[in-house]
Design a protein that fits this description.
- By secondary structure, the protein is of the alpha/beta class.
- The chain has 2 domains: 116 residues, Alpha-Beta Complex (Aspartate Aminotransferase, domain 1); 245 residues, Type I PLP-dependent aspartate aminotransferase-like (Major domain) (Aspartate Aminotransferase, domain 2), CATH 3.40.640.10.
- Strands 4-12-11-10-7-5-6 form a 7-stranded mixed beta sheet, sandwiched between helices. It has a 4-stranded mixed beta sheet with strand order 1-2-3-15.
- Helix 6 runs parallel beside helix 7.
- The chain is globular and about 60 Å long.
- Bound molecules: pyridoxal-5'-phosphate.
- Pyridoxal-5'-phosphate binds next to helix 4.
């Protein structure tokens, strides 16, 4: 019997302790965490620098509110702006909230230009969160069912399709922004083509629209750069962040640049908790740790390539594998059939924590600090259950 709302179908395991890429359940069984709390604990569990930063801050001051100056928020804003090439930061508490802020900002940008029906281009198979505007922007019809009406002011195009987005810009004079994930995570671990990203950047420039990159899942080192857009050699107008920014302490952020940095004025947007000293001390500790250990981020590319090659080798005679793809430590293995049961199989048989997204794609998001031995364990265990599954579900 539980008093919790059934918004999740939870696995029957309770974790009580973590260290690095390991988690221990309440029976003392150890698991290898290859999902990192869904791309949150990029530095692993109980990282000493993060633990120390939040303990020290908690003993000093947890919260005051955005009515006052907040030194740690200023410092984190400066650190993010300097690392990204953006101009300004707004802090909130989650990825959804960061995207809500971006959507509001795009609409206000449009209204200031005299556009009364500001419209944002979003992608098929996208995921941007669960609140109403973020849900409207999301391209997964299943999770929208029963929550209509959705908001006006969005138009959807296929991902990685230059012709479709060019046509929308041509046909619709109300476009004020494009919102796009550099790698679609929930949508099946699908990276954006570099040429397509650069094409969007160009279209946005030509049409005075904001290029808004949702880095909630890809940000903070996961793809082998601090921000995934840095692979593509351009600067967006708006970047949204959350997840790994606090390594488990809830924090979200929106970074803005140029004209986008001048849109919001006092009273346009706000939050009680956003950017409080506790959350920002975690964010600062994350960025400091990544700066002190550049091998964590550069290692994500090498480790991701190693994982993809090892899976391709281990599964090369399996007929049910459709694709092995990803970027850095976002790795997807797509099967030719739905496979949600693999999550429990991996947990029960090999004590591996993995995820299945889009119904048919195994998604691996291990922490950046995963060792070679742990990677070998992951490849062996996941390959084994894929074989088992494909044999018994032929
Ligand atoms: C790309 C992307 N955007 C937004 C979100 C929503 O973030 P949150 O769950 O922190 O609200 C997610 C969560 O998975 C995400 O992957």
């Amino acid at each position: 019997m539980t008093n919790l709302m059934p918004t999740y179908t939870r696995l029957p395991v309770t974790f009580v302790k973590g260290e690095g890429a390991w988690l221990w359940d309440s029976n003392g069984t150890r698991y290898l965490d290859a999902i990192s709390g869904i791309a949150v604990c990029n530095l692993g569990h109980a990282h000493p620098a993060i633990t120390q930063a939040i303990c020290t801050q908690a003993a000093q001051l947890v919260h005051t509110s955005n009515l006052y100056q907040i030194e740690k928020q200023e410092q984190l804003g400066t650190a993010l702006v300097e690392a990204s090439g953006m101009d300004k930061a707004f802090f909130c508490n989650s990825g959804t909230e960061a995207n809500e802020a971006a959507i509001k900002l795009a609409r206000l940008h449009g209204h200031k230009k005299g556009i009364s029906l500001p419209t944002i281009i979003v992608m098929e198979n996208s995921f941007h969160g669960r609140t109403m505007a973020a849900l409207t922007a999301t391209g997964n019809e299943k999770i929208k069912e029963g929550f209509g009406p959705m908001l006006d002011g969005f138009v959807r195009v296929p991902y990685n399709d230059s012709i479709a987005i060019t046509q929308v810009f041509k046909d619709n004079p109300n476009i004020v922004a494009v919102l796009v994930e550099p790698v679609q995570g929930e949508g099946g671990v699908v990276p954006a083509d570099q040429a397509w990203c650069q094409h969007i950047r160009q279209l946005c420039r030509e049409h005075d629209a904001l290029m808004m990159i949702d880095e909630v899942q890809t940000g903070i080192g996961r793809t082998g750069k601090l921000f995934a857009f840095q692979h593509h050699h351009f600067l967006p107008d708006v970047v949204t962040l959350a997840k790994a920014l606090g390594n488990g302490v809830p924090i979200g952020a929106m970074l803005t640049r140029g004209e986008a940095a001048k849109v919001f004025a006092p009273g346009n947007h706000g939050t009680t908790f956003g950017g409080n000293p506790l959350a920002c001390s975690a964010g600062l500790a994350v960025l400091d740790t990544l700066a002190a250990h550049p091998e964590y981020i550069s290692g994500a590319t090498n480790m991701g390539n190693k994982l993809k090659a090892a899976f391709a080798h281990a599964l090369n005679d399996c007929t049910g594998i459709k694709a092995i793809r990803g970027m850095g430590l976002m790795v997807g293995i797509q099967l030719d059939r739905p496979c949600p049961e693999l999550v429990k199989m991996a947990m029960d048989k090999h004590q591996l924590l993995i995820n299945v997204t889009r119904g048919d794609t195994i998604r691996l998001l291990p922490p950046l600090i995963m060792t070679d031995d742990q990677a070998d364990m992951l490849v062996a265990g996941v390959s084994d259950i894929i074989r088992d599954f494909l044999n018994t579900n032929a």
